[in-house]
UniProtKB/TrEMBL annotation:
Pfam families, per database record: Ribonuc_L-PSP (PF01042)
Gene Ontology CC: one annotated term: cytosol
Protein name: 2-iminobutanoate/2-iminopropanoate deaminase
Keywords (A to Z) from UniProt: Hydrolase
Keyword Hydrolase: yes
Top-level taxon of the source organism: Bacteria
Entry's Gene Ontology molecular function annotations: 2-iminobutanoate/2-iminopropanoate deaminase
Record bears the keyword Hydrolase: yes
Length: 126
């Protein structure tokens, strides 16, 4: 098992966990919240802006491992409100292009730092 931490252009973990873990041909990426890595905090206040930042963080994490969005085999989207689903879904679709990994979307009572959206992914290394 290889722990991935301190990836360039990806926010540092806000708790005692790794940004990602490589194991058995897979990359398990911890959930990304909309922290702007340059600012070190959440900048966007609307769910669309936050979703764009989350997806950019995921892309940067994957690219640092030589992967792209097409390597993702499973995604889990956490929304503070399921009413935001129709706002986030087209941004998610655009970020993945024609690639459609398996996905779950769930509404949660709250997310770290008051985020409106968080996304975690599992990617294939090969």
């Amino acid at each position: 098992m290889e722990l991935i931490n301190n990836t360039p252009n990806v926010p540092a973990a806000v708790g005692p966990y790794s940004q990602a873990v490589k194991q058995g041909g897979l990359l398990f990426c911890s959930g990304q919240i909309p922290i702007d890595p340059a600012a070190g905090k959440i900048v966007a206040t609307d769910v669309e802006g936050q979703a764009v930042q989350v997806l950019a963080n995921i892309r940067a994490l994957l690219e640092a491992q030589g992967l792209g969005m097409s390597s993702v085999i499973k995604a889990t989207v956490f929304l503070q409100s399921m009413a935001d689903f129709p706002k986030v879904n087209p941004l998610y679709e655009a970020a993945f292009g024609g690639h459609k990994p398996a996905r779950s979307t769930v509404a949660v009572a709250g997310l770290p730092l008051g985020a409106l959206v968080e996304i975690e992914v599992i990617a294939a290394l090969a």
